[in-house]
Amino acid sequence: MGFTGPVLSESGLETSSNTLSDVANDETDFGFRNGSFLFAPIPFKTPTIGAGLALGGGYLFEMDAGSDTSSLAAGALYSDNGSFAYGLSGDLSWDSNRWKLSATLAHADAIYDLFVGGTPVGLQQEGYVFTSTLLYGLSENFSLGGKVRYLDTTIGLADGGALPPDLDDDSELKLWNMGLVAQYDSRDDDLYPRGGYFVDFELSAGTTVEGTSREYARGFVNAAGYWLMAERTVLAG
After folding, report:
1. Among the ranges given (35-49, 65-79, 155-169), the one the predictor scored with the smallest mean pLDDT
2. How many structural domains comprise the chain?
3. Which structural domain range is residue 16 located in?
4. What pLDDT sits at residue 28?
């Protein structure tokens, strides 16, 4: 999970001149007990679920001097139309980045309008999602591993009644997804990079555990570069 906004640590309120990377690296010792707590309230407003507040908290630490920052986090949100969500996540790096493990478990209950044939239909969708990735470093910058994802979701009308025929097939779905993940990371810092590149590749296939058949395969590549323009100015693209 990523958070923005005011950052509260054990030592008090951090000013805008400090970054998450600065907070995580203040300690000279390493290990779980030598980390920092963060908290961030985030107001939001979207056309889909309305206005509300998201709350996020996390604990940042470093397992050893050669590994990226590890984190444990929790978050929740609530909107004025009754939608809510909450979740837990963890991101661990150890053995000088030789191993990286991330996992997220979340639940959401969203109320929103879906246009069917030009007519808005008020829906309520509830679901649970679990995703986890394990990477092994083959070199200083290149990692290879696997990813699993599970989704359990149900959809109904917000005011009750029968779903339109176009949506009835998707009223209850349970999906598994497994894939191959490869990453190239030459950034100088994982939280606040000032230089380097990050490339993320995933090739995966999914199948239906319960519900209408939804077998599929997909692949994608995400890439980003970072260039230091001034002492506190970084160009990312």
Report:
1. 155-169
2. 2
3. 1-97
4. 57
